[in-house]
Specification:
2 strands; mainly alpha; about 70% helix; MetI-like fold; two-stranded antiparallel ribbon; about 0% strand; 3 domains; 18 helices
């Protein structure tokens, strides 16, 4: 048999094998249709609008009819003092969130995993999950009702007890603590789902062996529980690092106010002001593109470092 004929036969058998595989599992590929269509329409489709960052965009002329200006808009954005202020605030709030909010679901998941009463565990999980489904508009109202300087419930109690009111929402450092507290309360319970799912795969024989060796509960958590969920922790940490330049609009906009604007003004609110309020769509697109590119760099960089240090990564 010649080499060419052998290659042809191998290729034919490979095609038959793939065809047989597709016929056998076509339902699984059919299920992928909707997510693929979603990403094509809502993720890849909007990329066409990225060229607005390089044009003097006119709403009436459209993208194609607008004049090409190259990097002029980038120079204008990078020369704005407000851009660097909001960039600093975005990094600051995200880093503080990473320090405070990221460990919270890990700790909660381990605590729930260690609870032996199934009834109490289910009740606790339900109570912890509920805040995730509450809109930030409602949460903002709750925050103002609780921590308002003049009429907030907490300050009313403090004044009744003879203490001075604490400016939770009007003093910068107090606002930061309130901001972080609200974020932990809203997201920590929902984040435990991923870690609890990872913990269900832990081999119980490891705990039994540790009991035989006389290991304490903290020792078992440190040497068995945490190493078992390390891949999940690393994956979520990399994704969180990728969002260092991106930040949700609702939370800083609703909880923030003019008194703490020095801290609460972030890139998302900056884009809202220059894009929707001022109608400078080109500058808003520049900031959005900047966030996307820097976020990609952060994801790739953190993934590379994680693979080098821990051996785990997402790519």
């Amino acid at each position: 048999m010649t080499k060419a004929k052998a290659t042809y036969l191998n290729g034919t058998s490979e095609m038959k094998r793939r065809s047989s595989y597709m016929k056998r599992y076509w339902q699984l590929y059919a299920l992928l249709t909707l997510p693929i269509v979603y990403f094509l329409i809502f993720r890849y489709g909007p990329m066409y609008g990225v060229q607005i960052a390089f044009k003097d965009f006119n709403l009436f002329q459209g993208i194609n009819g607008s004049e090409w200006i190259g990097l002029q808009a980038f120079r204008e954005v990078f020369a704005m003092n407000d851009f660097y202020t909001t960039l600093r605030n975005t990094f600051m709030l995200n880093i503080l969130d990473l320090i405070v909010s990221f460990p919270a679901p890990i700790i909660l998941a381990i605590m729930l995993y260690e609870i032996r009463s199934k009834r109490f565990k289910k009740i606790s999980q339900t109570i912890l999950y509920i805040p995730h489904f509450i809109s930030w508009v409602i949460i903002g109202g709750i925050v103002y009702q609780l921590f308002g300087t003049q009429s907030g419930m907490v300050n009313e109690v403090l004044r009744t007890l003879g203490f001075q009111a604490i400016p939770f929402l009007t003093e910068k450092n107090s606002w930061l603590i309130t901001y972080l507290f609200a974020g932990v309360w809203q997201s920590a319970g929902w984040g435990t789902i991923l870690y609890l799912a990872a913990l269900t795969g832990v081999n119980r024989e490891l705990f039994e062996a540790a009991d035989v060796d006389g290991a304490s509960r903290m020792r078992k958590i440190w040497h068995i529980t945490l190493p078992s969920i390390r891949p999940t922790i690393v994956t979520l940490l990399i994704l969180n690092l990728g969002n260092m330049v991106s930040i949700g609009f609702d939370r800083p906009y609703i909880i923030g106010n003019t008194a703490v604007r020095e801290y609460s003004d972030v890139l998302s609110t900056f884009v809202y002001r220059i894009g929707l309020e001022s109608g400078q769509y080109t500058l808003a697109t520049v900031v959005g593109l900047f966030q996307a590119v820097v976020g990609l760099v952060f994801v790739l960089g953190s993934n590379y470092i994680s693979k080098k240090v821990t051996g785990d990564g997402i790519l």
